[in-house]
């Protein structure tokens, strides 16, 4: 079964390689120039000592881990606000209800448009 799958996708892989290789060759020089320019500009921020670099990585990790309880607290507060709004939904002014409805409609439209674009602008299904 794996052999049959490899035979079926081999032409696709070859086509991808034929397409990507010239693009890679054309952009490699430009990308390397940009990389060298960026690294030259930020030379003073590069940590060369491995022990210090490891310490920085640990500091970054634990700093972000320390932010989790604060984020959970904010999420609980937001959820309480949503529950409060939902409990008072009959008292909401029509302008606010309209704003929420437009937001939901826009969000739904973005997902629908994303699906249509993902299918290659077809409405019936994906082209493989």
Automatic annotation (TrEMBL):
InterPro entries recorded: ATP_synth_F0_gsu_mt (IPR006808)
Bilayer-crossing regions: none
Pfam families: ATP-synt_G
GO terms, biological process: proton motive force-driven ATP synthesis
GO cellular component entries: mitochondrial membrane; proton-transporting ATP synthase complex
Major localization class: mitochondrion
Entry keyword annotation includes Cell inner membrane: no
Protein location: Mitochondrion membrane
Signal peptide limits: none
GO molecular function annotations of the record: proton transmembrane transporter activity
The UniProt record lists the keyword Membrane: yes
Keyword tags: ATP synthesis, CF(0), Hydrogen ion transport, Ion transport, Membrane, Mitochondrion, Transport
Family of the protein in this entry: Belongs to the ATPase g subunit family.
Protein name (Swiss-Prot/TrEMBL): Uncharacterized protein
């Amino acid at each position: 079964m794996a052999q049959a799958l490899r035979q079926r996708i081999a032409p696709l892989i070859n086509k991808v390689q034929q397409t990507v290789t010239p693009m890679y060759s054309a952009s490699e020089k430009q990308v390397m120039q940009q990389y060298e320019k960026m690294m030259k500009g930020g030379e003073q921020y590069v940590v060369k000592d491995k022990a210090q670099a490891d310490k920085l990585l640990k500091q970054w990790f634990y700093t972000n881990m320390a932010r989790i309880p604060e984020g959970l607290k904010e999420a609980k507060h937001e959820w309480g606000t949503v529950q409060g709004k939902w409990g008072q939904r009959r008292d909401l002014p029509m302008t606010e209800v309209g704003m929420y409805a437009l937001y939901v409609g826009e969000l739904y439209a973005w997902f629908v448009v994303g699906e249509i674009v993902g299918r290659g602008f077809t409405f019936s299904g994906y082209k493989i």
